[in-house]
């Protein structure tokens, strides 16, 4: 099995300066993917910049902690404070799952209507890793939309948990200190087989960012790391294939399904009830023989640790 890496920069759309940094890191070959926030001040700037980068993998960065909801705040009251903005990550409160579903759908639709189909789904402040309810809601959304979900380092105990597509590994680390470049290179040298996501937060600082996030200068230091030409050079030397989340879709053999749905929907036979499983299996086994009789080759699908920012 080959080694593939998705280097994903979070917070695209947070501010124009963050967007500029992420784009420069992508053009330098240091990142392969990003996740876009649709409810933040840099969203329109991100859209304008991304339209000239058709091969840049861009997913939805689901956000419940910065800014205001896409929905009318009154319709998702458990998610917001009295002023209509989201509760911050340190607040103690209970989110209504119906409100989470409604806001996730609204952010997803905002992304699609303004841009294109997201390559994947993940969450700001690791919401789906820290909250089992959000994990389940996002997993079901990822399956319905047939996109991968960012892997959680925490295995949630959820009965009949949905299983969306994910990478085999995820590396959550920071790269803004003096050892950042060496630490990233170490991750590449020790990369396991399969697909690994490396998460990062490069970007420049502007007044908008200063008014929103405590993560400021560290983003510029990370940007210097991911613009370093040593990153793409090392990946080439180690035969590591840089990809984005579309690689997971291309390697998919069968679509993911929610637990309540059958994994392989059966065709309707007008002569036989669709609820007769034996009949369905029998038809499936005859198919290759029919192809052979008709001289048609059957085609089988061959495409085959936690931190707060």
**Poorly predicted ranges:** 260-309
Taken as a percent bin, the fraction of beta residues is: 5-15%
- In sequence order, what are the helices and strands, one letter per element? EHEHEHEHHEHEHHHEHH
Distance from N terminus to C terminus (CA atoms, Å) equals 33 Å
The structural class is alpha/beta
Give the C-alpha Rg.
22 Å
The mean pLDDT is 85
Number of helices: 11
* C-alpha geometry: globular
Strand tally is 7
What is the helical fraction, as a range of percent? 25-40%
How would you briefly describe this protein structure?
The protein is α/β, with parallel strands linked by helices and about 300 residues long.
Protein architecture, described:
The protein has about 300 residues and is an alpha/beta fold. The chain has helices spanning about 15-25, 45-50, 95-115, 125-130, 130-145, 180-190, 205-210, 215-225, 230-235, 245-250, 275-295; strands spanning about 5-10, 35, 55-60, 120-125, 170, 195-200, 240. Strands 1, 2, 3, 4, 5, 6 and 7 form a seven-stranded parallel sheet that branches. Helix 1 packs parallel to helix 2 (about 45-50) and helix 1 runs parallel beside helix 8 (about 215-225). The two termini are about 35 Å apart.
């Amino acid at each position: 099995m080959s080694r593939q890496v998705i280097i994903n920069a979070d917070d695209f759309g947070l501010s124009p300066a963050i967007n500029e940094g992420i784009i420069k890191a992508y053009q330098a070959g240091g990142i392969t993917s990003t996740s876009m926030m649709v409810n933040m001040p840099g969203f329109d700037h991100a859209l304008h910049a991304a339209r000239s980068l058709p091969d840049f993998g861009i997913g939805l960065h689901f956000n419940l902690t910065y800014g205001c909801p896409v929905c009318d705040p009154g319709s998702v009251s458990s998610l917001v404070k009295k002023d209509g903005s989201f509760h911050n990550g340190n607040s103690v409160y209970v989110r209504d799952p119906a409100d989470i579903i409604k806001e996730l759908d609204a952010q997803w639709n905002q992304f699609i209507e303004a841009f294109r189909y997201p390559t994947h789904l993940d969450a700001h402040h690791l919401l789906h890793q820290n909250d089992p309810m959000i994990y389940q809601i996002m997993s079901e959304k990822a399956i319905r939309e047939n996109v991968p979900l960012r892997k959680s380092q925490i295995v949630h105990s959820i009965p009949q948990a949905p299983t969306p597509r994910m990478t085999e590994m995820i590396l959550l680390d920071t790269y803004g200190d003096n050892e950042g470049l060496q630490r990233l290179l170490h991750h590449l040298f020790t990369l396991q087989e399969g697909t690994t996501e490396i998460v990062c937060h490069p970007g420049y600082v502007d007044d908008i960012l200063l008014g929103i996030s405590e993560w400021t200068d560290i983003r510029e230091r990370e940007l210097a790391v991911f613009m370093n030409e040593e990153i793409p050079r090392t990946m080439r030397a180690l035969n590591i294939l840089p990809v984005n989340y579309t690689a997971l879709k291309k390697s998919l053999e069968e679509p993911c399904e929610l637990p309540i749905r059958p994994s392989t929907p059966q065709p309707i036979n007008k002569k036989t009830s669709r609820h007769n499983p034996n009949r369905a299996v029998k038809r499936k086994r005859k198919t290759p023989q029919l192809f052979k009789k008709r001289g048609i080759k059957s085609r089988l699908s061959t495409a085959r640790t936690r931190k707060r920012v």
